[in-house]
Specification:
CATH architecture of chain A: Orthogonal Bundle
Number of strands of chain A: 0
CATH class of the largest domain in chain B: Alpha Beta
Subcellular location (chain C): Cell membrane
Number of strands of chain B: 14
CATH superfamily of the largest domain in chain B: Periplasmic binding protein-like II
Protein name (chain C): Phosphate transport system permease protein
Function (chain C): Part of the binding-protein-dependent transport system for phosphate; probably responsible for the translocation of the substrate across the membrane.
Largest sheet of chain A: none
CATH superfamily of chain A: MetI-like
Oligomer: heterotrimer
Largest interface: A-C, 83 and 82 residues
Distance between the termini of chain A: 56 Å
Number of domains of chain A: 1
Chains: A mainly alpha, B alpha/beta, C mainly alpha
Family (chain C): Belongs to the binding-protein-dependent transport system permease family. CysTW subfamily.
Organism (chain C): Fructobacillus broussonetiae
Chain lengths: 295, 296, 307
């Protein structure tokens, strides 16, 4: 076989490989959506789940998922941002302790989320007496999310060329001022993309929440927005089953007659939300990029 | 410089406003609704029943909240023994679980669960004796033809080691023998779907998961029905226990009274696939001694 | 004059700001480090209880083949705590998944960076990101409803086993390996390509003989990274592997991994008992393995940095 045919064959093989990967994804999406979409309705999305009768919805679970996500993001974003800024801007590249911290962050990111969940259960739920609550869940999610987010923000920061930092220094700006006024604005688009994509992962997380935010979704009073009342949707001390936990739970111990419908519908909703996160992340990133670079 | 000042002023304002709102909300909170919640943790098999009871109880007793979590009988028992929760749900007597300090625990039996051996539909077997079940699950019998079925290999599907259903099955179905290491699933739903789709598979589920997609075996020739459990002719069943640490506070006692009440047992227990305590004609203690219940 | 020297000698506002900013960012980092240390300490103290308070021999634990902690073995008088079947199961699915995923990942990455630069990146980038975003519960459900019946129809048996686990994991780690490989391929300097083409190499020769060679350390890092993910994955694997803690007989017989046994058992055991402690020992192995993977990544990275 001469070089030219080898080239053609190889190109063909590479096309085939890329095509099959795309095919696998589309097949999976189609599988989930085709099974789930017929069960979606306004009623399904807004009503409460029923434990042993048909016709339950996922309204509370959906709300819980978003609320928990927002809380977890509020806690983890500032910490991750600070850590990433230190790692990328201040830390000496070859210092021993930085590389230890970096390794430990990476170990943490490959930690099975079950272990995070159990840690959260024994420390926050039992020791600190937070109970099965949104707060415990949000902290567990934070632990799960921190390494992912730190890494993604650090990557965004490191993509800003050093020229910008040198320019800042040449203008007499301190390192902190350079970071705040030059580096951060320049990396906002990719940070936002990273945050939204990691939000998608947090949204689908189940194992870390089973033992922390709990597996029950008490009925909420949607007219009461005082976070200190137990029945209020905003209360951080109530137990909150999320969508992903709900899917896991009904697949394992559900006894309602329409398990497969609810499970398929909930999976479809979960996938759609994650898809939305991904697409909006790219759109938002592009939009911000356009806006910030024009000025 | 001015721009950054404006930014920090706005930020401070937002924080102050937010803190103010929180203080306002805290002062106007509905303190009547914030009594300590009743938390139940443990057995996933008992979870739906306690959940249903909790929902009903909250409706008739506004201001209380009942939260029910799974986690497994082991979690339930160890949490209640430590006093970390108000109720510990378990499929087992606390004495049967190693490592539990049973000194302060008070047992409340709230329902009975029947367990039925289920088989894939193609095995050609509809009845199994207890000794056959033992032989199958200990690996002595490997082919369905040895117990009167087709020439097909037996595929065991077990529940997770330590799960309540498995413990009850081994104790009452296999005369206390330990089943051999085989594949394990930790949920009834999974067990059912695997048995349904795998030729030659056998497992066991609670009555609540009965289904016509699989063959439900008679045990010793007795039909797995509620009546047969109630009169004691069907051996494979266990009590569902709720444990309290000491007597529990007034709220907890009231809740347990409600769960044991005639009206609750009638309304929910059978609807959710359990067997009502009130209908049991026999009583079986920890060691398997059966006595007739004196109805008074 | 005095005024000026004083002004210069005093720490300026921006220096103060700089110190403040640095302090805050160090604090954030320390916070993360503290959490990591806490988790490590927690898992290790719990995990060591098996060996200290339950007096289990470490070698019996690591190399024993009988896993059945709730039953006391008649011959040895000890509970079955041999974790070897689980360790082997975990390693098997991890290596097999990486083995299958790697060619696909490299192929896709080459497609995106070398073969169809514009179109390829535009289509495949979102595909890769979406694959990352699919929750592992959903992967598990798909594995159970599609992969397991498929394996069963070809090989018979239950369909649950290492093969099904491998297939599911392979799809799960594919995006990780791909996106990291894309990054390393992009980092190969442009003049490598130009010089290869200039001396008359075909595109494939350039990819195979120059670019992939130059990017080998990066690709290895990507593979190890994917393996680390596969090793720690729990829910999806647990749903398709069958969870039989026997020595794996074949790729299609039910087996178990560290994570699957851990997830299943933890709720059914009593805190502080041997059955519970031994599960924390499994968690400790998981932690140590992910440490090993990370050190491996660092080592490969430092060995083969592009100079």
């Amino acid at each position: 076989m001469n070089a030219k045919t080898a080239d053609k064959v190889a190109t063909g093989v590479i096309y085939a490989i890329a095509g099959s990967v795309a095919l696998v994804l589309f097949a999976m999406l189609a599988f989930i959506l085709v099974r789930g979409l017929p069960h979606l309705s306004w009623h399904f999305l807004t009503s409460a789940a029923r434990s042993f009768e048909a016709g339950g919805g996922i309204g509370i679970q959906l709300f819980n998922s978003f609320y928990l996500l927002i809380l977890a993001m509020l806690i983890s974003f500032p910490i991750a941002l600070g850590a990433a800024i230190y790692l990328n801007e201040y830390a000496k590249k070859n210092s021993l302790w930085v590389s230890i911290v970096r390794t430990s962050i990476e170990v943490m990111s490959s930690l099975p989320s079950v272990v995070v969940g159990l840690f959260g259960f024994l420390i926050f739920v039992v020791k600190f007496k937070l109970g099965f609550s949104i707060l415990s869940g949000a902290i567990a999610l934070t632990i799960f999310n921190l390494p992912i987010l730190t890494r993604s923000i650090e990557t965004s920061l490191s993509q800003i060329p050093n020229l910008q930092r040198e320019a800042g220094a040449a203008l007499g700006l301190s390192r902190f001022e350079t970071v705040i006024h030059i580096i951060l604005p320049a990396s906002v688009p990719s940070i936002v993309t990273g945050v939204v994509i990691s939000a998608g992962r947090v949204f689908g997380e189940a194992a870390a929440l089973i033992y922390t935010a709990g597996q029950s979704a008490p009925t909420l009073d949607f007219t009461d927005w005082n976070p200190f009342n137990m029945a209020s949707p905003l209360s951080p001390f109530r137990p909150a089953e999320t969508l992903a936990v709900h899917i896991w739970k009904i697949n394992s111990e559900g006894i309602m007659p329409d398990i497969s419908e609810v499970s398929a519908g909930a999976s479809a909703v979960l996938i759609i939300v994650v898809l939305l996160f991904n697409f909006s992340a790219r759109r938002l990133g592009q939009l911000l990029y356009k806006k910030l670079t024009k000025a | 410089m001015q721009r950054s000042h404006r930014g920090s002023i706005i930020a401070t304002l937002v924080v102050v406003l937010f803190a103010g709102l929180l203080v306002f909300a805290y002062q106007h909170r509905d303190s009547g609704h914030n009594s300590a919640p009743i938390t139940a943790v443990g057995s996933t098999a008992l979870q739906p029943l306690v959940e249903a009871a909790g929902e009903d109880f909250q409706r008739s007793n506004p201001g209380t909240s009942v939260t029910v979590q799974g986690g497994g009988s082991g979690t339930g028992l160890s949490q209640i023994a430590q006093g970390a929760v108000s109720l510990g749900n378990s499929d087992l007597y606390a004495e049967e679980k190693k490592g539990i300090d049973t000194k302060n625990l008070v047992d409340h039996r709230v329902a009975v669960v029947g367990i039925v051996p289920i088989m894939n539909q193609g095995t050609g077997v509809t009845n199994l004796t207890q000794s056959q079940l033992t032989d199958i699950f200990t690996g002595k019998v490997k082919n369905w033809k040895e117990v009167g079925g087709k020439d097909q290999e037996i595929v065991l599907v077990n529940r997770a080691a330590g799960s309540g259903t498995r413990a009850a099955f081994e104790k009452w179905g296999m005369n206390g023998a330990h089943s051999k290491e085989a594949q394990e699933q930790d949920s009834s739903g999974m067990v059912k779907s695997i048995v349904k789709t795998t030729p030659g598979a056998i497992s066991y589920v609670a009555f609540a998961y009965k289904s016509n997609d699989v063959t439900m075996a008679k045990v010793n020739g007795v039909e797995p029905s509620n009546e047969n459990v109630e009169n004691g002719s069907y051996p494979l069943w266990s009590y569902e226990h709720i444990y309290t640490n000491g007597k529990g506070n007034a709220q907890v006692q009231k809740f347990l009274e409600y769960m044991e009440s005639e009206s609750f047992q009638k309304k929910y227990v059978e609807k959710l696939g359990y067997i009502s305590m009130n209908k049991m004609k026999i009583d079986r203690d920890l060691n398997g001694h059966v006595t007739l219940v004196q109805k008074g | 004059m005095d005024l000026i020297t004083e002004k210069i000698k005093k720490t300026s506002l921006s220096t103060k700001q700089d110190r403040f900013g640095k302090a805050i960012s160090i604090l954030a980092l320390l916070f993360i480090a503290a959490i990591v240390v806490m988790i490590f300490a927690f898992v290790i103290t719990r995990g060591f209880a098996t060996f200290t308070s339950n007096k289990i021999n470490v070698f019996d634990f690591l190399f024993g083949t009988n896993w059945n902690p709730s039953v006391v073995d008649k011959k040895t008088g000890l509970p079955g705590v041999g974790a070897a079947p689980l360790i082997i199961g975990s390693l098997a699915v991890t290596f097999l998944a990486a083995l299958i995923a790697t060619p696909f990942a490299i192929g896709t990455a080459v497609f995106m960076t070398e073969v169809a630069k514009k179109r390829g990146a535009k289509i495949m980038q979102p595909v890769i990101e979406l694959l990352v975003g699919i929750p592992s519960v959903v992967y598990g459900v798909i594995g159970l409803t599609v992969v397991v019946p498929f394996v069963r129809s070809i090989f018979g048996g239950t369909g649950l086993g290492i093969l099904s686990g491998t297939i599911v994991l392979c799809v799960m780690i594919l995006p990780t390996i791909t996106s990291m490989t894309v990054d390393t391929l992009k980092a190969v300097p442009r003049h490598y390509r130009e010089s290869a083409l200039a001396i008359g190499a075909t595109r494939w020769q350039m990819i195979y003989k120059v670019i992939l060679r130059a990017a080998t350390p990066g690709i290895l890092t990507a593979i190890v990274f994917g393996m680390a993910r596969a090793f720690g994955e729990a829910l999806a694997v647990q749903m398709v592997i069958g969870n039989a803690a026997n020595m794996p007989e074949s790729l299609v017989s039910p087996s178990a991994t560290l994570t699957s046994v851990l997830t299943m058992g933890i709720g059914n055991t009593v805190m502080g008992s041997l059955q519970n402690n031994v599960l924390w020992s499994l968690a400790m192995i998981l932690l140590l393995m992910s440490l090993v993977f990370n050190i491996l990544i660092r080592w490969i990275g430092s060995k083969g940095e592009l100079k």
